[in-house]
Amino acid sequence: MSNVEVMQPRSGVLTSVFSPNSVRPPKHRQRFHPGATSIIPAIKSQLTSQLTALLGIWDEAFVYGQNRLLPNVGGPFHSHFDSCPPTEQIRQPTTADHAAQSAREAQSPIWTSLRQWRAVIGSETVKRLLAAVLNDLMVEFVTWSYAGVYREELHIHLDFWVEHLFARLTHNILCALDESTDVHVSEVEVKKWKDMAMSRLGALRVDELFEIIVDWDATAPAIEDLRRFTTNPATRGYLTHDFANALQTRLLHPGASTMEILQLYISIIRSFRVLDPKGVLLDRVTRKLRRYLREREDTVKVIVAGLLSDPVQQDTGKSAPGDPEALTELAVELATHNASDNSADDSEFDWNNMDWVPDPIDAAPDYIKSKNTDVIGSLITLFDTKDVFVKELQNTLADRLLKNKPDYNQEISVLEHLKIRFGESALQGCEVMLRDVLDSRKVDNVVRKDRGMGLEVGWSTTPDQEDYVELHAKILSRLFWPSMPEQTFTVPDVVLKQQESYEKGFEALKQSRKLTWLNTIGHVEVELDLEDRTYHDEVLPWQAAVIYAFQEEASEKTVADLATELNMSPTLVRSACIFWVSKRILVEASDARDRYAVLERLPAGTDMIMNDDNGGRPDAAAVAAEAAAVQAAREVEEEDRKQKMAMYHQFVVSMLTNQGQMPLPRIAMMLGIVVPGGFPFSNEELKEFLAGMVKEGVLDVGAGGAYKVAS
């Protein structure tokens, strides 16, 4: 009996805790059975298909609301951006539009399907499927509607789609799955969806950024899309990392020419200045690019050639028809944008700058805001020292100043603009070169008048020889011009007499100076009278000397004969002969190589017009002439190099005699100090030169690879 009394209270406790009335079943039972999981992929596929139709994806004819124009309001909204009218012509949805859209959505089978899916797999599982499908569809819509389409105010179109289609439809589906959801879409929820859509658009534009920058003129509106995307360090880092990898893969390789790389770099500078005026993003994406350009041998040559090119097509910035290899847009940029036009320097010590803002938090530790943020400033600061740029500028300027041009306004303008950036002292040599050429015209006129060499109208002097030549000279200051390799040859006697007369006139005018003729440099205007045609053109002096030698009665001449007669290298003679063959003035003998004769008459059926490019296809003779000219120039450079090396030979012997044995790096450093103009060769070339001196018995190699004078 006592045991029964003990058990009764325990039974009462259990009954009070686990009362049947306190445990209620769920409102919507989730009847998961073994086959429910297998139908989830089918449910996801149906959900994707039905939402795609409701959101207007892949349907270029889809419009929101009523498909008709309203007076003074505009046209309806098209889900396909490229098919949509301009943004300002899209009308805001009216009550009738909302009603028409709601009626269209009500006819969709998705609402019946939702009830069935909820009964099979439950509301939560449907919501998870819905989230995955909507995320994929947002990416799909952005790619379909906006990929490759760059128009102003694109974000307005995207906001319309998100607000009136995506967010509203998503909210209605959630209400159908859960009756407790508020029937009204909150602004916070809409903003969340808009931010998500903008991030998808930004990711698309980052993937397209390389193509956007390549075709910068037509794709500039896409940068505005990126500005709305790069609003935090994470998105900014994603953009710079992805674009830097694209540059490394698609541009920074030997297959891309320096011209192409610089053209893209210019577009990068312009676009990133719009995207991020502080320059942090530009600094991060171009570090490898700038380092790669510094390693290319012809980078500075292409930049200088572009600055000195003639900006004929200023509207487009493209190369002039006669100079397709020049980066002409640099000349346009230099003429329209001075260094003083840059924005104010936001230095930490500019206490009066009320527009100062701190550097972005994602700036690199060694980031320094450059004052030269324009295209020209970015290019000329590629190199650690401006001496490299100034030296190449002198070489290119010398070639242009030695040409026969009516004026040098372009060169004067470029120097004036560059003096603002480099300072007058750095370009003093260029100023002297330009002054030499301008002064030469005055000196030339005076000397020719005094010596009776002029043929101008009103002068009584008349040439009394049929082969009379009219000589003009440019007097150069030897110390301020770049070194010019001289290929010696014998000029015709008629030219030599004119030179002697010119020297006397110049020495009478400038008594403290003496002329040294550089016969290889310059241009000769020739006129050749053949039996059936006349040839008139401007050629190089050594080419003119070779064709002048054919005016004698000899029918044929060999390269060896011409080389002996003109005291010219055989390579240069052969180059000149091949050049005249390409002009159809000379012809090579069919039975003997290097034997040429004058082609007095063209073969029957040959066009009389001298067409150099042969319809855009250079003939074999023209190509051979160019190759021979290049080979001759190489020989001249090699000869000049040997002459310089002879001078370095004496420098090396004197250094090692006075200071004892030295390793290779110290010898290179000392030569860079003592040689006028600096030592122009690399350590590898110096090592090869020293090896030759060791082989000759002039030097010995001691312990540790140090060089010393042979005892």
Describe the structure.
- There is one protein chain.
- Helix 4 packs across helix 5 and helix 10 crosses helix 12.
- The N and C termini lie far apart (130 Å).
- By secondary structure, this protein is mostly helical.
- It has a 3-stranded antiparallel β-sheet. The protein has a two-stranded antiparallel sheet with strand order 1-2. A two-stranded antiparallel sheet has the order 6-7.
- The chain has 6 domains: 37-183, no CATH class; 208-294, no CATH class; 297-351 and 370-426, no CATH class; 427-457 and 466-509, no CATH class; 524-610, Arc Repressor Mutant, subunit A (Orthogonal Bundle), CATH 1.10.10; 639-709, Orthogonal Bundle (Arc Repressor Mutant, subunit A).
- It is built from 27 helices and 7 strands.
Summarize the structure.
By secondary structure, the protein is mainly α. Helices cover 53% and strands 4% of the residues.
